[in-house]
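new request in #modeling-help
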Amino acid sequence: MKVALLLLTALPLCAQSTLYICAGAAKEYVVGAKLAASGLFRQTPGNTWEHLGYSIPFIFGVDSDPADPSIIFMAAGNGLIRGLNGGKDWTIVTGSDITELRDLAVTPTAIYIAHSRGIRVSKDKGKTWTELSGPLHRKYTEAVRVDRANPNTLLIGGEEGVYRSEDAGKTWKPAGAGTYQIMHLEQSPHDPAVWLAGTQGGGLYISRDGGKTFESPSEAPGFGRNIYDVAFDPTTPTRMAIGGWGPGVTVSEDGGKTWQARNAGLPRPDVSAIVFDPAKPGRIYASVHEEAVYVSDNAGKTWTSAGMEGRVASRMKFIGASK
Amino acid sequence: MKRLLLLILSALPLAAQTAPAFEARKLAMIDAYAHYPGPGDAGFGQIAARLWKHEDPAWCSKKLEDLLAAGPSGDMFWMYPVTAIAHLDQGQLTPSARKALRSAWKTYMPYRGDTENHFLLYYSSLYLMSQLYPNEPGSTWYTGKSSEENLEEARQWIENWVKLTTTRGQGEYDSPHYMGVYLLPISYLAAWAKDPAMKKRATMMLDYLIADYAPENLDGLYVGAHARVYEDQLVEKWKGVSSDFGYLWFGVGRPMPFPNNYTLYYAVASGYEPPEVLKRIATDRSKPYTHFEKKRTRNRWRFNDDLHGPVYKTTYVRKEYAVSSDQGGILQPIQEHSWDVTWSVPDARGIQNTLFFTHPFSSVHELQTYFVFGPDSGIEGVVRSKKTYDSPDKILGGSPYEKVFQDEDTLIALYSIAPGARFPHINGFFSKDTGEVKEDPSGWIFLKGGNSTYLAIRPLQPYSWKPIADGGKRLFSPYLNNGVIVQAAAISEYQNLEAFSMAIRKLPLEVHLDPVPSVRFRSLRGRQLEFTYGNNPTVNSKALDYTKWPLFGGPFLQAEVDSERLVIRHDNLRRTLDFRNLTSVDSGR
């Protein structure tokens, strides 16, 4: 009963959420070349893909306004893009002083962006920005997340591991994985103390103390490999997964104690993005490098193609439907 | 005066004396596009050329609408031709074509790119289009921002770039190819910016960019260390876009059989003719000189405390040859070229008149320094467009294991390759046009570069020869601690190659290879040079002071770091560019 209540509070929009994918047809693309439809896609009720807004080569993160999920934000090469009407009508929110956005996190009161030279926050919907990377030794930031249990607590991942701030980015403390670049961070929707961090070369790191310390599990999945994405199954508190180059999709059913590679049916074990469906227990999507997006209804035991052939997804996210 | 004119004419190479005047050269380049010989047509370039000439506006309108209907692509490389067409229109296009052009700036979002040339093309185009269509709301632009917001954002970036360049040097410096994508947008702003300050700044930047090329050209060929160059331009230097610009500005060298479109767009915008002082610098090779430049790396996103690192360039030029270098290391990703010797030939078309060595290096670390690439597909992605990037046989690119020192026409390159490096050897490029290569028992290799230059090459370790598919041969030396000494001289300085060889053999030379390579050498010019890998080199026992390296130094250009001021001079003729006060002052005659 307690679990059911937790789930309900964590997943207010499950029933209405839609899968968004940031994907590029990068196979033959160099800057200036003709580009096949790329950028932001949304899964339709008929399980086809709707391309939203402009075709641009690089979007690395997507999120929505918690107050109005029809307002989509994208961390893109051109800057932070706001897409109204479910991501269709775009405005580049940032200016010429920032480029190559890597990730974003949108809260009811702030927008955080990770970029090639740091982390910025806007508390006025993107009109003005404050740089938060000042105290950090190295600025490059690949991932940013806000602790949903405490909006002043931020976690970022960059060139020198995970850093954590308890004062909304004024000061930072190292939180682990310091010898690795971080590729992605996520917080458990079931237990806010649990975090996953995918690294470049160090496999998976886990925190069970609210992101204060990250450690490599004893049976570290993907050690020595690059973990591009990490995900929690919103429907099953003990299930989590990583997506990586080599490990493919690797799943834990016991809260991260043991891990199993689940790549049977995938054309190659090189996965750039994964996401669990919050409305369908056991359903997981995986983007296989330059092949397609694949879907599994049994937590990765078997896979079928879900389209998006030839593309590489950099991020996938379920977002609540437009009001 | 008459005597001076005669002196100047005698210093000019043949091509300059026989080339038509600047306006005729410019017109010929534009005509090549306006009356494109086919097959097919020259697309946006042909439209721009015809509009410039006020020819056949009906064809221009129809062609423009057809191209836009096919769907824009090309990011900033689409923006710049369309921006030129919009400004060359001047009432010639049909309302329908003009409307199609304008609406494409709403329906298509170009990627802003990841290099400075991308950004400069992007923002100069956005600046001018926003200026052309003022007071229009964000709903009419792909950015979602109003004309005024676009203009302001673009202005800020352009001004910041000019300041960065005139204080710390260019990031994509001295590229025989990419020079075009800096010159054309600046030419646009000089021609079409309405803000007098922007127009003045751009006109001064044209002088600045052309001045950057003028002392480092040899018969129109762009010599020197390059931030970016393609492999075919590296070995056959004539193939650079620089050949078109050298010919257009100064009548030197030979233009491409068909002009590069960067030159076209430069010409149809400001079509700026360099001042006399730059013409003299570009063509006067009557006395040898050493030219110094300080540049900077591109943005280093990772693994460095500073966003930009310094690049120290040395270029020695005389009419027979040029020796050019930077300090070595990974200063740029993928396409860096750190040093070479280029010798003069009467006609460089089809000729590989250059020699250099490299350590072949490629790595995810290098790519992640300069790009936001992920770790796995980065090299694979680069190789798709830069085929040799990950090849052990390659001759292009910087290496963290290479350190270079040059004094006049003597160059020492040392290598200390880390154990376990993927390619534990160095490659020396000996072109198909080097003629006979004499391997002397002393360890020196002697050869002639064309009919102008003698070269002495001293590899520090044993080597073998490997053929190069397109001709010439590659010196292959598979040792971790390694190096090469290069000494050039003019053929006119010695009776024959044997006399040159004898002079070289007599030069005191001491080499140590462990723990790192170290050379002590008295150069042909009588200077005592000492260079140990990882240490500052010394000349006559005095260490080079890199902290005092000028932004530009030498007989023709002088600028101090952070000064925003460049003095361009030839004899008593002088132009002083002051970017802080936006003034350009001429003096002398």
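bot summary: The first strand of chain B starts at residue 217 and ends at 218.
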